[in-house]
Design a protein that fits this description.
Length: 161
């Protein structure tokens, strides 16, 4: 505004009062705008803080849930390993029992005591024609003379029926 206009506003009380009211209204509007801007910024900051806090809480909660799941799986794994070890021990015990039941000494003892069989000191084997043929074939393959083959070649036979 020009100096003449200001002087006129100062000299005329109605114009000065009008100007003061406009200035006051402009200041109030400016203060209200600044207050609204501050409130808006506060809400944005609060919302951002709340969002970050929720995300962090969610991550922490997820971590706890996953750790609990891992711990439960480890417990199940240990139980399964214990069961496996127990079953291996049972299997070894059963194998040992089978081996003891199949041992020649036990079989002989059971045959003598239960079945009334008699222990033979010397065993006699019967040679069949099929056995002789197989022995001759092996002898020819190895080129090693077999006593039966030699005996037959000489014309004398020893052996069983």
């Amino acid at each position: 505004m020009s100096l003449a206009m200001e002087w006129k506003c100062l000299s005329d009380p109605r114009l000065g009062e009008e100007r003061r009211r406009r200035e006051e209204r402009r200041r109030r509007e400016e203060a209200l705008r600044k207050e609204m801007e501050r409130a808006r910024r506060s809400r944005i900051v609060f919302t951002a803080f709340l969002a970050v806090a929720l995300v962090a809480s969610g991550i922490l909660l997820l971590t706890v849930v996953l750790n609990v799941g891992v711990a439960q799986n480890e417990v199940r794994l240990r139980e399964s390993q214990r069961e496996i070890e127990l079953e291996r021990r049972r299997q070894d015990a059963v194998r040992l029992e089978i081996a003891s039941l199949e041992s020649p000494a036990r079989v002989e003892k059971e045959a003598v005591n239960r079945l009334g069989m008699v222990r033979v000191e010397a065993a006699e084997y019967i040679q069949t024609p099929a056995y002789r043929a197989a022995a001759e074939r092996k002898a020819l393959e190895r080129e090693v003379p077999v006593p039966e083959a030699q005996a037959r070649a000489d014309g004398s036979e020893e052996g069983g029926i």
